[in-house]
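Give me structure tokens for this 224-residue protein.
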Amino acid sequence: MTYHILVVEDEVKLAQFIELELKYEGYQVTVANDGLTGLTSARESKPDLIILDWMLPGISGPEICRRLRTTGDKVPIILLTAKDEVSDRVAGLDAGADDYVVKPFSVEELLARVRAHLRRESPEEPDTLQFSDLSLNRSTREIYRGNRLIELTAKEFDLLEYLLIHPRQVLTRDQILERVWGYDFMGDSNIIEVYVRYLRLKLEANSEKRLVQTIRGVGYVLRE
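Here you go.
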């Protein structure tokens, strides 16, 4: 599932930076640079989460929160604020925000808060992931291609699981490297290609149709 995040921020460079980081994490992002546009977009596009600046032209962040909450909208809202007084934070939360991040902030902290709120809103992830005739059971760690049981190593399993979580979505080499091997991985730069080859050999052992496709110069995608 690809989450849609609305960023309402009038500092254009900051908005672009947040948008770039969110897109790198695989989110769909819409940006608004003033309060009225942000409120309209929130009502029309129904995002899964809103990152909302406090000080905005037209309508302030807290006022946007209040207007959304009075209509019953329960979308998670993270308020960005330069105001660090306790009374200001309380005012933002009382207006309807779910969380706040004080400027200047660490992008890692913002992304962690985004993930935390989306987890709370998301239904529990299923034990079984399926695509075409391929299935992966997270509890038993069994993988089937049709009725054929496939044995994978731990890292092959992690790679396939990541692809199955994002079917038909092109995943860059950097995204795969960070999620499957870890952000600080310093090993063989061709490790992804090696493991994709291992995975294909096992998934296509009976001449089955290729599901793990290469997007030259970008990365890989799971599609028929």
